[in-house]
Amino acid sequence: MSPGAKNLLSRFTGLFLDPADARVYAAVRIGFAFTALLNLMQIWPDRESFFTDAGMVDHETVRKYTVGLYESVFYFCTDLSAVSTYMLFSGAAMVMLMLGIWPRVAAVAVYVWHLSYSIRAPLVLVGWDEVLRCTSFLVMVSPLPSCWCLQPAKARRKAAAEPPPPRYGLTLLQVQLAGIYIHAVLARLGDEFWMSGDFMSFFLLSHNARWPGLWVLNYGTLLKGVTYLVLLLELAIPVLLMVRRWRWYGIAAGFLLHAGISLMAYNLMLFFLSMLMLYLSFLQKEDMDWLERKLGRRG
C-alpha cells in the first residue's frame, strides 16, 4: 500500500477510532435526553387521541398499513391507563439518561419509545420526531462514558481513570446532521416554489407562520433572497462544520438559521432544539476546557 493510501486509511479509521473527549459525549447525552423529555411532555396531553383504540386511528388499522414488522410497545398498550403508564416509564428513562443513571439501559428504553410511537402514530409525526428517533439510535450505540453523571464520589474517581472513548458515535451524529441538510436541499431542487424563490412568501402567508398577513406582499424581493439564502446555508453548514477551523462559523450559521425558523414559524421550538442538539457533537476538547474554566470561575 502506498504512503498516500496508508495516510488516507489512517485518517478514515481515525474518524471512528481516535479518542474523544468524554465530556462531549456527556453533553450530547444530556442535550438529547432533555429534548426527548420536552417532546414527550408535548405529546402527553394528546396521548389518548394518538395511541389508544378510542383515538384517531385504531390499533388494527395501523398494523394493517405498517410496512414491515410492527415493532411497537403500543401493540400491548391499547387503553389510556396502559399508554399513560408506558409514557411515564419512558419519561423516567429520559431523566435517568440525563442524569447518567444506568445510561445504557436508559438509552435502550428511550430508543424503544421513539420507535414505538413513530410506528403507532405515523399520521402525527413531524420533522423533529424523525430527527429524535435517529438520534436516539445513535446515542444508544455510542459510548456512554461515566462523565457528568449522578454517582458516588468513588465511582467518579474510577470513571476519571477510564481511557477516553472512541469517537465513532460523534462521527455518526455529525454524518446525520450533514445528511439532514444535504437531503433537504436535494428534496427542494424539484420544488417550483423553492427554485423560483417564492417559498418564503407563501409560507409567511400560511397558517404555519407566526405572524401571517398581507404585510408579506410588501417584501417579495427580500423574501426571495431569504429563500435562496436558506438553501445556501443548508449547503454551506456541513462544509463549515467538517473543517475544524471553520466549525464555529458553521455552528453560528446553524444557530441563526434555526433561530430564524423558530421565530417566524409557529410551534417549531422542538425542531430548533432537536437540530442544535446534534451540533454538540462538533465540540472539541478545547471547547470543554474553556467551558469548565468559565463555570469554575462563576462557581
* Percent strand: under 5%
- Domain count: the total is 2
End-to-end distance: 53 Å
What characterizes the major β-sheet? none
The tally of helices reads 15
Order of helices and strands: HHHHHHHHHHHHHHH
Can you give the mean pLDDT?
88
Number of strands: 0
Task: Using the CA coordinates, give the radius of gyration.
Answer: 22 Å
The percent of residues in helical segments reads 55-70%
Low-pLDDT windows of residues = none
Shape: globular
Alpha-beta classification: mainly alpha
Brief rundown of the structure:
The chain is mainly α. It is built from 15 helices and no strands.
Provide a descriptive summary of the structure in words.
- Helix content is 70%, strand content 0%.
- It is mostly helical and 299 residues long.
- It has two domains: 143 residues, no CATH class; 133 residues.
